[in-house]
Design brief:
The complex is a heterotrimer of chains A (about 325), B (about 300) and C (about 280).
Chain A (H helix, E strand, L loop, with lengths): L5 E12 L5 E13 L4 E5 L6 H9 L6 E6 L2 E2 L9 E4 L11 H9 L6 H14 L15 H13 L5 E5 L7 H16 L3 E6 L2 H7 L2 E6 L2 E6 L1 H5 L5 E7 L8 H4 L3 E3 L2 E6 L4 H10 L3 E8 L3 H14 L5 E2 L3
Parallel strand pairs in A: 3-8, 3-9, 6-7, 7-8
Antiparallel strand pairs in A: 1-2, 1-4, 2-15, 4-5, 9-10, 11-13, 11-14, 12-13
Chain B lengths: L2 H37 L10 H7 L4 H21 L8 H11 L4 H12 L9 H14 L4 H14 L3 H13 L6 H12 L3 H13 L4 H34 L6 H6 L16 E2 L5 E2 L19
Antiparallel strand pairs in B: 1-2
Helix pairs in contact in B: 2-4, 3-4, 4-5, 5-6, 5-7, 6-7, 7-8, 7-10, 8-9, 9-10, 10-11
Chain C lengths: L19 H16 L5 H19 L4 H25 L4 H5 L2 H6 L5 H35 L7 H25 L4 H16 L1 H11 L2 H13 L9 H5 L6 H27 L5
Helix pairs in contact in C: 1-6, 2-3, 2-6, 3-6, 3-7, 6-7, 6-12, 7-8, 7-12, 9-10
Classes of the chains: A alpha/beta (about 325), B mainly alpha (about 300), C mainly alpha (about 280).
Amino acid sequence: MTIPAIEIEGLTKDYATGFWRKRMRRSLDNLTLLVEEGEVFGFLGPNGAGKTTTIKLLMGLIFPTAGTARIRGQSIEDVRMHREIGFLPEQPYFYDYLTARELLDYYARFFGYSTGERRERVNRFLEQVGLASAGDTQLRKFSKGMLQRVGIAQAILHDPQVIFLDEPMSGLDPVGRREVRDIILALKQQGRTVFFSTHILSDAEMLCDRVAVLVGGKLRGVGAPGDIVSMEIQGMEILFEASHAEALPRSFAGRATQIGGRFRIEVPEAELYDSLERLRGCGARILSVTPIRPTLEDYFFGLVDHGKTDRLPEEVTVR
Amino acid sequence: MSAASQFWRSWAAVVAASVLFAAIAMLQVRIDAQTRPVAQQKEELVLSSGPMLQKISLGYDSLLADIYWTRAVQYYGGKLHDLSRDYSLLPGLLDITTTLDPHLLVAYRFGAIFLSEPPPSGAGRVDLAIQLEERGIKANPDAWDLDANRGFLYYWHLKDYAKASAAYLDAAKNPKAPHTMRMMAARITEKGGDLDTSMAIWAQYFTSSKDPRVLKTARDHIEGLQALKDERAIDALSQQYHAGFGKYPTSTKELRDAGMLSGIPLDPTGIPYIIGPDGKSGLDPTSSVIVEIPPKLPNEK
Amino acid sequence: MSSMASPAAGSAIGRPVAGAIPGVVAVNTFREAVRDRILYNLIFFALLMMGAAILVGQISIGIERLVIINLGLSAISIFGLIMAIFIGVSLVSKEIEKRTLYSLLSKPIRRWEFLLGRYTGLLLTLVVNTSLMTVGLAGALLYVSRHFERGDASILLAVYFILLQLALVTAIALFFSCFSTPVLSTLYTIGIYVAGVFANDIHAIGQFTRNPAMEAVTRVIYYLLPNFHNFNIIAVASHGEAVPFSLIWQNTIYAALYAAVVLIAAAAVFSRRNLK
């Protein structure tokens, strides 16, 4: 049995707020999560849900109020663990007075490579992210997309086993997003674990083996995108053509939407055959029948709306 | 914006700024004209406490000392040039300078001159000059020449030969001091006030200096004393002449013709002495020698 | 993408030689200072020294050497202090503000190693800057007096003491940088510096009052404050006087110990700081 890539147990983070720093705001509540090695894991949630907080806790940038976490079996308190992880922060900013090559060379020095190895790696990864020609340009001249690519390069140039990406697609054009997607898939192919947070649900659906949804600091759901969303079939969608709208049964006419000569109507699963009969009885020509599955988005917003009925974020007053 | 219009805009901005600055300058002249009467105030040392300045200087006191010393020199030079008789800020400036840097020997040496010389060439405060040298010795026990300066001040300005001799003896205590210090002390005790001693004092006091102003002052005084010496010698001959011929000589030529002088005596600048109607010799009016007459001691002729 | 070697094979991945990590950060900090054109201050210093060398003959006769040395050492001290304080207070806060610390701390680097590296880097910058200024001072001195004297060796000693002082000030600035904004840190650091210069007087005031409580309080304050007056031998150097050897090693150890205390405190504060 392999060690899980990421083990989080009861991770909690409170912030002191208010003028006298007396009130506590709980930005992460008792998160327990397991990510297996080789998984591409998506971390979803609205703004302020605690996604970045979680990643910052794992990176050692902030310290937990309670709970523990281990990455590849090593505690997050152990700096040696950082050998095996890579991190791309949200909206990364790097030393703008350095060139891309100098930046990568600087970071590479923390891993004990020989001079030759370091140079080889820097060149290799510059090329891999498509920055070979811009290697000697100062970072202050880089566009956002280029900075993102430098960020990915610095996150993976030491061949880490677990890579953390905080909103890696944010602010990128479709080309850039595709490139990031390709990189994530390539990493997965090498057997590495990728943990990334995102708002873009379609990406999560496409890339992730599993996702977790965080709302208001609490974990609301974990599972494969397919599993999560195939909870239930919400209904059936019928596409049909009808020569005369008046011919439609009154109960349908109101609920059908029309696009050109075609109509679309949603009916509950139980009423499917009944509806089909009635449509055919009116002379409508059935084009297709498709089950309506909730998308990840529906699932997501369902959770978010649900979360809104609780106090968001949870406030715990300290006596 | 086309390149051409951008060019003209930039120049227009430069011209506008220049015109406005010219207007501002003219306005400032007007303002100054109105406030000048008010600004003619007494000169003052805004900060006059040496210890306080030392605290304020946050450890850069030796640099501040140099600045105040420069200020003192320029103040003195300015007053000297204007032949002013008011050197009131001088003691304060010197006090601050030496508080900030007690080892600034040049301040003690020259400061004493500035303070002791009678107006208009100095503040005329011999007492302060002596105090300055005493402070200097305390802070710099090795500076024997400050004791020698003290000796000079007592001798020349205060005519206090006892204290002068004692000061030269203090100087002599320092192994680095030349043996002339002891000689000077002895000589003053024996025959303080006579011309040769005075000349020797002046010679010693200033020969060590390379400062041209100091050398000039020394030369002037030595010349004056030499002239005085010559005049007394000529006066003595003049009396003899009168005793022999019943009248005073009218010029030194007559003394030479009478065989009393081997040649025509010249003053230190090379101009012959004249003899007045009462037989007293003196300097030719065109001579630039200045004579200061030291007072006579009871045992002096 | 070509297949990448797995971490275990080939290169020795891990941490470099013990103690090398602060060095890596230090070199980068130095590079940052150079690229921020900090060293341009040397141009002002050069102009100042040249102007002084040329004018000093007219303004103060007989004390040209004295003035050049006083001016030069004072300028070295002031320029150095400004640099130590203004760069020092942003050593840490700038990295937090700009979030560059996020990616850096995800590498195998301990927080105290980062601090030590930043400190050493600024110190290196100060040493280079000061050395170049000292050469400039020597040049001006040669121009004015055409030769060196034996007493001029004290100038080098004065520069060394200035560097000790700067090492202390930098440590204090770095300490504040760990938890405060640059503006406040500057005020605190300047405040402590001035208090340290006046430490003697604070002590004396306490003794003057003859009130045992006040005396005790001021004595404690005196020993707690960094006594910067210890390091000021500019007047000694300009008069070419000798400095007792005991003073040299005692001051060195004082500076080293005090800086160590401050850096340890900074590491303690910073190690548990939650970065925004």
